[in-house]
Amino acid sequence: MKILVLNAGSSSVKFQLFNMQDNSVLASGLIEQISEPMSRIRMKYQDSTGIEQVVEQTLPISDHHDALRKMSALLIESGVIHNLNELDGIGHRVVQGGASFQAPAMVDEYVMSEIERLIPLAPLHNPGHLSGMKVSVEQSPSVPQVAIFDTAFHSTLPKYAYMYALPYKYYDELKIRRYGFHGTSHRYVVKEAARYLKQDIHTLNAITLHLGNGASVAAIENGKSVDTSMGLTPLEGLVMGTRSGDIDPAILFYLARKRGLTLDELDHMLNKESGLKGICGSNDMREISRLAHEGNEQAQLARDMFNYRLKKYIGAYSAVLGRVDCIVFTGGIGENDSETRKESCSRLENLGIKIDAERNALRSSGIMQISTDDSAVKVLVIPTNEELEIAVETMEMIEKHC
Ligand code: ADP
C-alpha cells in the first residue's frame, strides 16, 4: 500500500510517500517559496537499485496547483510511481479541526467547508491546507483522501480543562476554548512508549513533551489526552523558539497604552519576536547552547527560562495524572538536547523522576530510556514521526471506509 502524506502551508508543501508494507519512505520533499519569483523544490528518493538520490530545482511555481503538478511529475520522472492512481491514499495534515473533528475524516465537500469555516481560528495554517487539499482532490479524484487534525488527539480533554475562565458567551458564540496542537506527535510518541514499555496503551499514563521550534506538553491518562499546554492557538504554554508561551494577559494592555502597539503588532511580537529569540536574539537551541557555554548571560537565561517552564508543566501534569508511568521527550530539542532533559527533570525525585546521567548523555536514532532503573517514572527519548503517524491513520481510515 502506498500512502502520500501532504502538509500544505501557505507558501510551501511538504510531502512524503510511504510504502506501508514496511513503513519505508519511498520519497520525501519540500517545495518552498510558492508564488514568489523563484521557488525551490528538493526531493529525496530511493532509485530502483535502492540508492538515495536527491533532486533540487529552482524555478517559478505560481500556486498550489503548480506545486502539486510539479511534485507528481518528479515522483513519476524519478520512477518512484508510474502515475497518481498508483497511490492507495493521500493523508492531509490539518492544524485546526476545532470541535468539529475528533478523529480523522474522509475528505469531501463537507469536510473542506468545515476546514474553511475554521480559518478564523487558524488563519496562518488552514488556508494553505485547504488549497493543497482542493488541488489534490482535483488532480487525483479517484484516490481516497483523508484529513488528519493536529487538534483531534486533544478532543478528549474534560470541559474543566479546556474552558477559559472568561464570560461563557465567548465559548457559546465564538467557541473560544483550549484546542491544543501537535496532537499527531503526542499520539505517535505515546503509542511508541506503550510498545517500548510493553504496556497496554489503554492503561498508560504519560507526560509527553514535544520540544521543537513550537513546543507543547500533553498529560495523557489511559492513552487519552486530558490536558495540554497549547490553547486556542499554539501561542500558550511553554517558552518556544519565537513564541512567548504563558504570560500575564494584562501585559498586552500595558504595552498598548505605554507604547501604542496595535493589535497586529502585539500579535507579531508574541508569535514571532518573543520566546528564546526575544530573550537572547536566537531561536536555534544549538546556537543558544553554544552561546551559553561561551558565557553569554542572555543565552543562559533563555535556556534557564525554557527549562524552568518545562519543569513547572511536568509538576502540574504529575498532579493532574496522579500516577505517571512515563515522561517522553521528543522534537528537535527533546531528542537532542541532553542538558534540557537533565535540567527540566532535576530535583523531581519526590515525583519519582530520576535521570541517569550516563544514559542521558548517549545519542541514539532510536528510543532511549534515560531514567535510572529504580526511577518510578520511566523517562524516554522517542524520535517523533508525524508523517508516519498521518500515513498510518490515513491507511486505517481507508481500510475502514473504502
Ligand atoms: P520544528 O518545530 O520546526 O519541526 P524541530 O523539531 O526540528 O522544529 O526542532 C527545532 C529545534 O531543535 C531548534 O531549536 C534546534 O536548534 C533544536 N535542535 C536540533 N538539533 C539539536 C541538537 N543537536 N541539540 C540541541 N538542539 C537541537
From TrEMBL:
<feature type="binding site">
    <location>
        <begin position="210"/>
        <end position="214"/>
    </location>
    <ligand>
        <name>ATP</name>
    </ligand>
</feature>
<comment type="pathway">
    <text>Metabolic intermediate biosynthesis; acetyl-CoA biosynthesis; acetyl-CoA from acetate: step 1/2.</text>
</comment>
<feature type="binding site">
    <location>
        <position position="14"/>
    </location>
    <ligand>
        <name>ATP</name>
    </ligand>
</feature>
<feature type="binding site">
    <location>
        <position position="386"/>
    </location>
    <ligand>
        <name>Mg(2+)</name>
    </ligand>
</feature>
<feature type="site" description="Transition state stabilizer">
    <location>
        <position position="182"/>
    </location>
</feature>
<feature type="active site" description="Proton donor/acceptor">
    <location>
        <position position="150"/>
    </location>
</feature>
<dbReference type="GO" id="GO:0008776">
    <property type="term" value="F:acetate kinase activity"/>
</dbReference>
<keyword id="KW-0479">Metal-binding</keyword>
<keyword id="KW-0547">Nucleotide-binding</keyword>
<feature type="binding site">
    <location>
        <position position="93"/>
    </location>
    <ligand>
        <name>substrate</name>
    </ligand>
</feature>
<keyword id="KW-0418">Kinase</keyword>
<dbReference type="InterPro" id="IPR023865">
    <property type="entry name" value="Aliphatic_acid_kinase_CS"/>
</dbReference>
<comment type="similarity">
    <text>Belongs to the acetokinase family.</text>
</comment>
<protein>
    <recommendedName>
        <fullName>Acetate kinase</fullName>
        <ecNumber>2.7.2.1</ecNumber>
    </recommendedName>
</protein>
<dbReference type="GO" id="GO:0000287">
    <property type="term" value="F:magnesium ion binding"/>
</dbReference>
<keyword id="KW-0460">Magnesium</keyword>
<feature type="binding site">
    <location>
        <begin position="284"/>
        <end position="286"/>
    </location>
    <ligand>
        <name>ATP</name>
    </ligand>
</feature>
<dbReference type="GO" id="GO:0005524">
    <property type="term" value="F:ATP binding"/>
</dbReference>
<dbReference type="GO" id="GO:0006083">
    <property type="term" value="P:acetate metabolic process"/>
</dbReference>
<dbReference type="Pfam" id="PF00871">
    <property type="entry name" value="Acetate_kinase"/>
</dbReference>
<dbReference type="GO" id="GO:0005737">
    <property type="term" value="C:cytoplasm"/>
</dbReference>
<comment type="subunit">
    <text>Homodimer.</text>
</comment>
<dbReference type="InterPro" id="IPR043129">
    <property type="entry name" value="ATPase_NBD"/>
</dbReference>
<dbReference type="InterPro" id="IPR004372">
    <property type="entry name" value="Ac/propionate_kinase"/>
</dbReference>
<keyword id="KW-0808">Transferase</keyword>
<dbReference type="GO" id="GO:0006085">
    <property type="term" value="P:acetyl-CoA biosynthetic process"/>
</dbReference>
<keyword id="KW-0067">ATP-binding</keyword>
<feature type="binding site">
    <location>
        <position position="7"/>
    </location>
    <ligand>
        <name>Mg(2+)</name>
    </ligand>
</feature>
<comment type="function">
    <text>Catalyzes the formation of acetyl phosphate from acetate and ATP. Can also catalyze the reverse reaction.</text>
</comment>
<dbReference type="InterPro" id="IPR000890">
    <property type="entry name" value="Aliphatic_acid_kin_short-chain"/>
</dbReference>
<feature type="binding site">
    <location>
        <begin position="332"/>
        <end position="336"/>
    </location>
    <ligand>
        <name>ATP</name>
    </ligand>
</feature>
<feature type="site" description="Transition state stabilizer">
    <location>
        <position position="243"/>
    </location>
</feature>
<keyword id="KW-0963">Cytoplasm</keyword>
